[in-house]
Amino acid sequence: MAVYTEVPDEDLAAFLKAYDIGEAVAFKGIAEGVENSNYLLVTTQARFILTLYEKRVERSDLPFFLGLLEHLSAKGLNCPQPVKARDGAVLGELCGRPAALVTFLDGVSVRRPTAAHCAELGRALAELHEAGRGFGLTRPNALSVAGWRALERSARGRGDAVAGGLDALIAQELDALEPAFAALDLPTGVIHADLFPNNVFFLGDRLSGLIDFYFACDDVFAYDVAICLNAWCFEPNGEFNVTKGGALLAAYHAARPLSEAEIAALPILARGAALRFMLTRLVDWLDTPPGALVKKLDPLEYLKKLKFHQRARGVADYGWRP
Ligand SMILES: Nc1ncnc2c1ncn2[C@@H]1O[C@H](COP(=O)(O)OP(=O)(O)O)[C@@H](O)[C@H]1O
Ligand SMILES: N[C@@H](CCOP(=O)(O)O)C(=O)O
C-alpha cells in the first residue's frame, strides 16, 4: 500500500480551505502505487486525487511535472489536470510534504494486456510524444544511463544474495551499455518514462487516459518505446510476445513514424530499460524496511527480460515488420 504519510482530518481540512472545490465527503488512502502517498478525495463537486510527494520526487521537479500535465491537457491528451487553489497555486504543502490535487480520471488499468491493448498503448505513446512538443520546461532523465552507476553502487555487494552472479552481471551490463548509449544520436523530447500498464486506463477496449507522470523527463523517444516493450509485451512465463510487440510498434509508427536509426536502436534501448527497472527494483528490494506498507516489485522479473534482450538478434525479435 502506498500511503507513506497519514493525513489527519484537521490537516486535510486546513489544506482544503485554500481551494474552491466544495466540501469533502470521502477521503481514503489508495492501495496501489509505489512512489508517493495517494488519496482519493470526493467532494460535493467532484472526485480528485491528492498526492503527497515522497522519496524519489525532488521538490524542484514539481513545477515540471505539474506544468507538463497542464500542457498535455491543453493539447487534448487525457491526463490528470492539476487543480488550482484560489491564489492560482497548484502546489501546496501538507503534513510537511509537497502536495497537489489533480482531477480524477475514469477507467481501469489492465493486468494482462492483449495485443489490442498494446496497439492502443503504442498509439497513445506516440500522441504523448507529439503533444509534449513546445512544453517550455526541461528535466534531464535522472534514471537514464548516467544514473545507473549510482544505483549499481548502492546495491554493490548485495545483489548476489538476491540472485547468484547478479553483482557481476550488473557491472558487465554497465560496461557494455554505457558506450552503446553514448553512441546513439536519436530524436528526443518529453517522455513518460514509466508507462507501465498500471499507469494506463481503459474504458472497454479503448485507452481512456494516462497517469503518473512523476518520472517524465527529456530523453530519447525510442527509449520510452523500449520501456513499454518491456512493460507490456512479456508474458508471465518470461517469454516475449512478438504479436504484442508488433502491435505496439506498428501503432506507434502509424502515429509517429520511427526512423531507421530509432528502429535499429530498439534492442539496445530495451536492454538498457530492463537494466534500469531491475536496478531500481533491486535497490528498493534491498532497502525497503520489513513491514513497510508498500508492495515490493521483483527485480528478477527484469533480470529475465534483460537476458532476453542480451540474446536478441535484431528488431524482428520484437515483432517489428517493416
Ligand atoms: N488522476 C487519477 N485518476 C484516477 N485514479 C488515479 C489518478 N491518479 C492516481 N490514481 C490511482 O492511484 C494509484 C496510484 O497512483 P500512481 O500515480 O501510480 O502512484 P505512484 O506514483 O505512487 O506509483 C493508481 O494506480 C490509480 O488507481
Ligand atoms: N513501474 C516501476 C515502479 C514505479 O511504480 P509506479 O506505481 O510509480 O508506476 C516498476 O515496475 O519497477
From TrEMBL:
Pathway: Amino-acid biosynthesis; L-threonine biosynthesis; L-threonine from L-aspartate: step 4/5. Gene3D superfamilies: 3.90.1200.10, Phosphorylase Kinase, domain 1 (3.30.200.20). It catalyses: L-homoserine + ATP = O-phospho-L-homoserine + ADP + H(+). Transmembrane segments: none annotated. Its EC number is 2.7.1.39. The keyword Nucleotide-binding applies. Residues 28-258 form the Aminoglycoside phosphotransferase domain. GO terms for biological process: threonine biosynthetic process. One of its GO terms (molecular function) is homoserine kinase activity. Keywords: Amino-acid biosynthesis, ATP-binding, Kinase, Nucleotide-binding, Threonine biosynthesis, Transferase. Belongs to the pseudomonas-type ThrB family. HAMAP family: Homoser_kinase_2. This is Homoserine kinase. It comes from Methylopila turkensis. The gene is thrB.
